[in-house]
Specification:
The protein is globular. With about 500 residues, it is mainly alpha-helical. It has 17 helices and 2 strands. The protein has a two-stranded antiparallel ribbon with strand order 1-2. Strand 1 and strand 2 form a beta hairpin.
């Protein structure tokens, strides 16, 4: 049985030779007529264009909200107080996003694609409205939790519904558009949040999100199917796995914000223990969050998931700390620093779209090359970013190139990694596999953020602090996180083995 679920021996892809010219790539129609495999025009025209807008727009809504909230949080705290709970703005959102993505399969079976997506959008809109009227931080966190839950559902549905509403030949391109929305959000979110913050109207930012939520709920009702004819039978909720998954994220989050090194270590240790228990339960349970073979250490599916996790973790130091490094170490204004940091997201988007049309052995090359490019970019960042007081753009230009290299490197592999996961499981596990992609991505983000915070603090971000402390933090952050793409090189080769 090969990766696509077909029996029979497949030709081995040689990474260093040009792939043989395949026979005409065709799509079989019901009447026996075949058409050439569709490209971007088939995805971005007619009904497919509206479906693409609906699925990608939901991801863009969730992702843009992440950057808007980060930008306006100082204004929120100044208005309603709650500074001690500042970090829980992110914690509540990420934890409930993971929970939402894990529960997406259940809602999809109950409500069908149309009802499930509309429900997720309205939950997100309800959370946004609560944030907009919040008089205290406690109420605001309730709204952020609902936002996270609805957003997690929309993220999971975006991947799950790609296989429901598009032909298989369009999956890589559709995935490229959906994942590319994070790059768009990276560019748009800080600017939108900054404008509302400058106007002193942070509440209006959330009202704008409410309006967009209603729009996407209406689009879902228009273009998505009411029922999934091929859905698998209903199964009990994997409650214990969800508890362990949330506990791992909470342990990481609590450990990352603690100022005591022992508490940092305790948080990471607790998270590792919860993940180990999760893996044991998943192996033995009939009701899973991940496909059955996901935790077989020497399996191909495990290698694909591990590659995705390691690549996602790689970008977190840049997303969190690069704006600070640019401002303090290289003397850039906040707006300029924010958009320089957004180069990672832009590179990811360009790489995803550029490589999405690859087929045959070409996607293997992209997957294998991805962590190598990411590692090269991280190596350059390790050398150049800590150089405080450097000569302006003489250093910033190669730093920007390295950030683009990291994002582009991950982007060229992302559509094909996700597509291979969906093709590697049987029909009865398609729903679980689709939901697991978002769960894994969100967990990797939480893991990377918590680990980055711990490494930065241990390196001296706060003590001794100042330029010396921040320079040390930059050095150790990029050096330690370069290990992730280095490990991903091995996993990528295993995941693409025929």
């Amino acid at each position: 049985m090969d990766l696509d679920g077909n029996s029979g021996r497949q030709p081995v892809c040689n990474l260093w030779e040009s792939p043989p010219m395949p026979p005409t790539d065709t799509i079989e129609r019901g009447n026996g007529v075949t058409d050439a495999a569709p490209g971007w025009a088939a995805l971005l025209s007619g009904g497919n264009a509206i479906r693409s807008l609906t699925l990608a727009g939901g991801v863009a809504l969730h992702a843009t909200n992440v950057f808007i909230a980060t930008t306006i949080m100082p204004s929120v705290v100044k208005d309603i107080g709650g500074l001690p709970y500042y970090a829980w703005n992110t914690t509540a959102f990420v934890v409930l996003s993971i929970l939402g993505s894990a529960l997406s399969t259940k809602l999809l079976r109950i409500a069908g694609p149309r009802g499930a997506y509309a429900t997720a959008a309205m939950l997100f809109g309800l959370g946004s409205s609560i944030c907009a009227i919040a008089p205290t931080m406690a109420v605001f966190l309730i709204g952020r939790s609902l936002q996270g839950f609805g957003g997690g559902l929309m993220l999971a549905f975006a991947y799950a519904m790609i296989r429901l509403v598009f032909h298989e030949s369009l999956w890589p391109r559709a995935i490229a558009i959906v994942s590319g929305m994070w790059g768009v959000a990276t560019l748009a979110g800080p600017a939108i949040g900054g404008v509302f913050a400058e106007w002193g109207a942070w509440r209006a930012a959330f009202w704008a999100l409410v309006a967009l939520s209603v729009l996407f709920a209406m689009l879902a009702g228009m273009v998505l199917p009411k029922r999934n004819a091929g859905q698998s039978a209903a199964s009990p909720l994997p409650g214990l796995q969800l508890v362990l998954l949330v506990a791992a994220v909470l342990a990481l989050s609590a450990g990352s914000i603690a100022r005591d090194t022992l508490l940092n270590i305790a948080g990471v240790t607790g998270a590792v223990m919860f993940v180990a228990l999760l893996m044991q339960v998943e192996r033995r349970s009939a009701n899973r969050i991940f496909p059955a073979d996901a935790f077989k250490p020497f399996g191909r599916l495990f290698a694909l998931y591990a590659t995705m996790l390691l690549l996602e973790v790689t970008v977190t130091p840049g997303e969190i700390f690069v704006p600070l490094f640019f401002q303090v170490l290289h003397g850039q204004q906040p707006l300029v620093a924010g958009y320089l940091a957004a180069i990672i997201g832009g590179g990811w988007t360009v790489g995803s779209i550029m490589s999405s049309g690859a087929s045959g052995c070409e996607d293997v090359r992209y997957i294998v090359a991805s962590p190598i490019l990411a590692f090269a970019g991280m190596a350059v960042l390790t050398i150049l970013v800590p150089m405080a007081g450097s000569d302006g753009w003489t250093v910033l230009v190669p730093i920007s190139g390295a950030l683009a290299c990291v994002g582009f490197g991950i982007g060229i592999a992302w559509p094909h990694l996700l597509s291979r996961v969906l093709k590697a499981v049987g029909p009865d596990e398609q729903d679980v596999a689709s939901a697991s992609l978002t769960t894994l991505q969100l967990f990797a983000t939480a893991l990377g953020a918590a680990t980055a915070g711990m490494v930065a603090n241990l390196a001296g971000l706060a003590t001794p602090g100042g330029i010396i402390g921040i320079s040390r933090a930059a050095l150790w952050l990029f050096a330690s996180f370069a290990i992730a793409p280095a490990l991903a090189v091995m996993m990528a080769r295993r995941g693409t083995r025929t």
